[in-house]
Design brief:
Strand order of the largest sheet: 3-2-1-4-5-6-7-8
Number of helices: 9
Number of strands: 8
Low-confidence stretches: none
Strand content: 15-25%
Distance between the termini: 38 Å
Bound molecules: NADP nicotinamide-adenine-dinucleotide phosphate
Largest sheet: 8 strands, mixed
Structural class: alpha/beta
Length: 269
């Protein structure tokens, strides 16, 4: 049966590769990007794939809270049901690491945007739905001041902290929802896959993007992930594994989620 799948950051890298694989299987795709021109190209590419189902494009800069909310509203206006949300969009290095709202752009795009988006889209997701959050092998303990926009971090530290924060929220929400909500799973798609992010960050060409796309398709659709809520899949090891120890501590996860809630309530994102 075909599914309705929203994938963020579908205009490049792993997200684009994943969208191509899902299109080939006829799923209804909601592709998100931040550039109208890139989105138009992606829609053309996906529609040209044999067997492709409907494709809709949504533009939003996920470094801006208002645009994250508008994305959720646009999706909700068009759809009353989603089967899968893949929170794939991410940033490592950028010329200006401060988002307009004063937060580090890695925390904003990689952690808060998925947090806010899923919160807004939850009414569209049923208990057999899935949320796939793109984690990473790079995970470092979250510096609360940096998360709250009160301290600056180097690129690598900001990225690794934003990814652990996402993984902690994932574990927390999975535990909280149990069998009553969609499966929430964090996935490291494998390290050093050949995207522009990896080229910019590490100066290496990287490995086959298909490795990352294949695991995202499995996480979105296969039975092996049907009871994976709150878990972390490490595709460097090819199996479910323990994330950074902080993400296995329910009290730390709850504290982190409380900080995300505070940011959303007190800040004009
Ligand atoms: N590649 C790896 O080895 C690797 C390893 C571990 C985890 N990951 C994770 O996998 C995900 C995909 O990364 P990738 O390697 O495929 O990188 P990528 O090629 O740079 O793709 C990132 C995607 O996110 C979008 N994006 C970035 N900033 C955005 C913003 N402010 N608003 C909206 N969209 C934004 C990009 O849009 P544009 O097309 O406009 O740039 C692009 O579609 C990320 O979450 C990354 O952290 C990747």
């Amino acid at each position: 049966m075909t599914k309705t799948i929203l994938i963020t950051g579908a205009t490049d890298g792993i997200g684009l590769e994943t969208a191509k694989k899902l299109a080939a299987d006829g799923h209804q795709l909601l592709v998100h990007g931040r550039s109208d021109a890139k989105l138009q190209d992606v829609v053309t590419t996906l529609k040209a794939i044999a067997g492709a189902g409907p494709v809709q494009a949504y533009r939003a800069d996920l470094s801006k809270g208002a645009e994250v909310e508008a994305l959720a509203e646009a999706v909700t206006a068009d759809h009353d049901h989603l089967d899968v949300v893949i929170n794939n969009a991410g940033v490592f290095k950028t010329a200006n690491p401060k988002a307009q709202n004063g937060l580090d752009i890695r925390f904003m795009v990689n952690t808060l945007a998925p947090f806010l988006l899923v919160r807004k889209l939850m009414p569209l997701l049923s208990a057999d739905g899935r949320v796939v959050n793109l984690s990473s092998a790079a995970q470092s303990p979250v510096n609360r001041d940096a998360l709250m926009g009160q301290a600056d971090l180097p690129d690598g530290a900001a990225y690794a902290q934003s990814k652990l924060a996402l993984t902690m929220w994932s574990a927390h929400l999975g535990l909280q929802l149990g069998d009553h909500g969609p499966v929430i799973v964090a996935v490291n798609p494998a390290s050093f896959l050949a995207s522009k992010m990896v080229k910019d960050a590490y100066g290496v060409a990287g490995n086959d993007l298909g490795v990352g796309a294949d695991i995202l398709v499995r996480a979105a659709l296969s039975d092996e992930f049907a009871s994976a809520s709150g878990k972390y899949f490490d595709n460097d090891r090819g199996r479910f594994a323990s994330p950074h120890p902080d993400a296995t501590d329910p009290a730390k996860n709850a504290q982190l989620v409380a900080a995300l809630d505070q940011l959303i309530q007190e800040r004009d994102l």
